Every structure is written in C-alpha cells, then in structure tokens.
C-alpha cells in the first residue's frame, strides 16, 4: 500500500520518521535544498553533485505541478527523462544517495502502485523507475523506515519486455557530439588581413641559382670546410625477453559478497555487491554507503543454480581483471569463480550442479590467490579480450579428488613443457591455505 497523503506532507513524514536527528519535528515543510548532507553525513558531495541535487529537486517539483494540473503530456515527458537517466545509474547521482531519490519515491511510488505490469515493465514501460522505487524503499543505503504494508509490491521477476541495455560509452560519445555541435565553429570565419598563413619564400630562379653556384666555385683562398665525422649512435638495448606464459596474469583474489539480489532484467542473473580489497577511487568500483567499503558490482549467472541466501555475506574467489561488461543494463566488474561438472561438447555447460570456490572464511577481502608454482610476476591490469587470455588458461582450472581447486598444466598447450612447473598446482591464498569446493570432483572451474 502506498503513502496516500499529499506529496509534500508524505515526504516530510517519511523524512522525519526515517531521520529524526536530521529533520526537525516542528518543520511544516521539508527544507530539501539543505537536507542531503544532514541525512547522509558520512557521504561527501562535490559542488557539481550538489548542483545536480538542486536541479533534480526542481524537476521533481515540476512533476508535482504537472500531476496537480493533470498535464499528462508533461508528466509523461518528465517520467521518461527520469527513467532514461536511471538506465545507467543506481541512484540519481549515480551511486550516492540523496534527498532527491527520496523525493522521487514519495511522489512517484503511489503512481507506480497503480501501474499495470505492462506499464511497469512492458515494451513502453518505465523499467528503471520501477527498479529505483524498489531499491529506495528496501535499500540499506537509504534505511527508510517504511512498514511492509506501506511498501509498493514489486515482483522483480515479472519483466514483460527486456529493453536493450544502454552502452555508457556510446551515450558519452553521443553527449560529446551534441556538445560539440552546440558550440560555434571557427571554420568559415574570414581571415584578418595581414594575419593569414605566411606564404612560402619564393624559389630562386634556375639561372640565379647556377650563377650563385659558379661564384662560389671561383672563390680563392678560402679553405674548404672539413666534413664533420658522424657520431655513431649507441646501439639500442635488446628488448627484455618475454616472460613465459603463466596463469599468474589472471588477478584472483578473495572477495567478500556483502549482499546479492536478483537482477531486475534477467531471470538467470544475480547482482552482487562484493568487497575485493580495492583502494578507494579505484576504477570500476563504488562506495558502499551501508558499510563504507569500496566495492564492485558483479553480475553472475548463478540464479537458479545457487540459492540466493547462500550468496549473502560470504567469502568467494573473484576474477578481478576481466574487462567489465554490461549485462542487461548493469555493468559487471568482476567474476565469481565456481565449479560445475565437465560436459561433452554440445551439452549445456550451465545445467548444474554448481558450487562456489571457497577460500578460507577468515581470509581478508583482497588477499591474492595463486596456483602453487605459478605465482611469479604481477597480474595484468586488464586482460585483453582480443588475446583470449582467460580462454587460454581456464581449461586448466579444475578440482581434484580431494575437492581442492588446482591448475592442470596438461590441459593448457601454451604452458606445456615448462621446466620446474608442477603438473598440478593447488590454488592457495597468500597465507598458504588451499581453496576448495563442497562435493564436485574433476569439475571445470570458471
């Protein structure tokens, strides 16, 4: 059941109920322009983000006015704008929470409640607004105190149409072109007299050139200039020999799944928030407001194979240097390592059963994991997908009869024959503990 009171009254009540220390009980209307830093004191907001919050509050105010006037065309325009903006963002600011998100919830949630499933997630539906409403009312990052009976009932598995995901790079390039087109080009402006490009010096006439040469030849008493001896250039240093191929180029780490949810646009995917030990500000990470940790968002095709409760608050092994990919509208920045039975060519490799690779429960997030005997060098920053690095080494990832995860040299032609390397290198943490699976022997690990 949605909040049924007038929007401003509803918002003020929601803010005071959820953040009594930030909102005065004597307030008669919400002071939204200054509310965000009071409600989220642990989050730092830049000047640009504060300006964005103000702009969104104005947009939301415009939506409220359009609703009061029953201006359906303007309402549709503003909702489409919000929906498009949220297509590549978790919140209106991207990942950080703000009072603007709560304002959208207070105003739009009653509207969403009345929408049909087709209006919510049909071909012309507002998929991303629906996802945002569910996130705001349930997310720990907002911690809104809303009784269950007042929350909007949203079935995340009822998706009538899956929209084509927006490519962030293409969107950025499009906006860049629009900005460039809006600027006045310099081309076509008349040149200022006397400030054009300097003309090249005229070439000497052929006859004058010959006369000058002859005069130079008749000069007497002038010693000829000795030619300078050319200095030999130092020989270039020979390039360092390439390191022998090794699975150590793959960045394997202990990861801590803080939480996992169903993907809003894909029945087979989970979306996990994982602490991989990254430093704050690292590319492809974000700040988890609930814990203050730097985290990665990871999509994994484990829905239906591993129960969602088993994906909560647990340690896993993460592959951290694969190139990020967008999966049904959500950017995935790592991969969760799991084992499954080997299948014959042409059979479904994702049929199950599937078991997560387990590092020691007390291993810290971010601890490096390597195959015994293959730990030389540092992992590459990002694996080049064109070079098929992951595809080269993954066939050697396996489990033993003792349920230990290992690297089988014989399964990877690129490393066969290297002297001093183990035929079967166990997957170990830096502290020397071997990673294992529950029951699968001789399984493929990927």
UniProtKB/TrEMBL annotation:
Q: Which domain of life is it from?
A: Eukaryota
Name this polypeptide is given = Amino acyl-tRNA synthetase complex component
| Location of the TRNA-binding domain | 246-370
Q: Which GO terms describe its cellular component?
A: methionyl glutamyl tRNA synthetase complex
SUPFAM superfamilies, alphabetized: GST C-terminal domain-like, Nucleic acid-binding proteins
Return the annotated region ranges for Disordered.
165-248
Q: Which residues cross the membrane?
A: none
């Amino acid at each position: 059941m949605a909040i049924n009171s007038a929007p401003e009254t509803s918002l003020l009540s929601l803010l005071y109920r959820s953040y009594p220390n930030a909102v005065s009980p004597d307030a008669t209307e919400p002071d939204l322009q200054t509310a965000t830093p009071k409600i989220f004191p642990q989050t730092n907001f830049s000047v640009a983000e504060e300006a964005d919050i103000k702009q969104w509050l104005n947009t939301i105010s415009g939506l409220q006015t359009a609703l009061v006037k029953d201006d359906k065309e303007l309402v549709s325009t503003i909702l489409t704008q919000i929906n498009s903006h949220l297509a590549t963002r978790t919140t209106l600011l991207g990942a950080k929470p703000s009072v603007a998100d709560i304002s959208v919830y207070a105003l739009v949630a009653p509207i969403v409640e009345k929408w049909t499933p087709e209006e919510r997630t049909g071909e012309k539906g507002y998929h991303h607004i629906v996802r945002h409403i569910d996130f705001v009312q349930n997310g720990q990052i907002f911690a809104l105190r809303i009784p269950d009976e007042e929350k909007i009932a949203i079935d995340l598995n009822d998706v009538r149409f899956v929209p084509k995901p927006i490519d962030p790079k293409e969107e950025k390039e499009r906006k860049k072109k629009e900005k460039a087109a809006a600027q006045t080009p310099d081309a076509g402006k008349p040149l200022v007299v006397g400030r054009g490009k300097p003309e090249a010096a005229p070439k000497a006439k052929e006859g004058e050139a010959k006369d000058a040469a002859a005069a130079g030849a008749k000069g007497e008493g002038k010693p000829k200039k000795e030619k300078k001896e050319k200095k030999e250039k130092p020989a270039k240093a020979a390039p360092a020999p390439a390191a022998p191929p090794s699975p150590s180029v793959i960045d394997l780490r202990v990861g801590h799944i803080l939480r996992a949810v169903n993907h809003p646009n894909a029945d087979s995917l989970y979306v996990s928030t994982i602490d991989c030990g990254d430093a704050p500000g690292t590319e492809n990470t974000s700040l988890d407001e609930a814990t203050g940790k730097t985290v990665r968002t990871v999509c994994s095709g484990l829905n239906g194979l591993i129960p969602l409760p088993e994906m909560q608050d647990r340690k896993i092994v993460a592959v951290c240097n694969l190139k990020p990919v967008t999966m049904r509208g959500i950017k995935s920045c790592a991969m969760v390592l799991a084992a499954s039975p080997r299948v014959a060519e042409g059979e479904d490799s994702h049929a199950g059963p599937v078991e997560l690779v387990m590092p020691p429960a007390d291993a810290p997030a971010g601890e490096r994991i390597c195959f015994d005997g293959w730990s030389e060098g540092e992992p590459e920053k990002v694996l080049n997908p064109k070079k098929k690095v992951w595809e080269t080494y993954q066939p050697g990832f396996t489990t033993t009869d003792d349920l230990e995860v290992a690297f089988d040299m014989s399964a990877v032609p690129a490393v066969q024959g290297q002297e001093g390397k183990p035929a079967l290198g166990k997957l170990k943490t830096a502290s020397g503990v071997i990673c294992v699976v529950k029951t699968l022997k001789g399984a493929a690990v990927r």
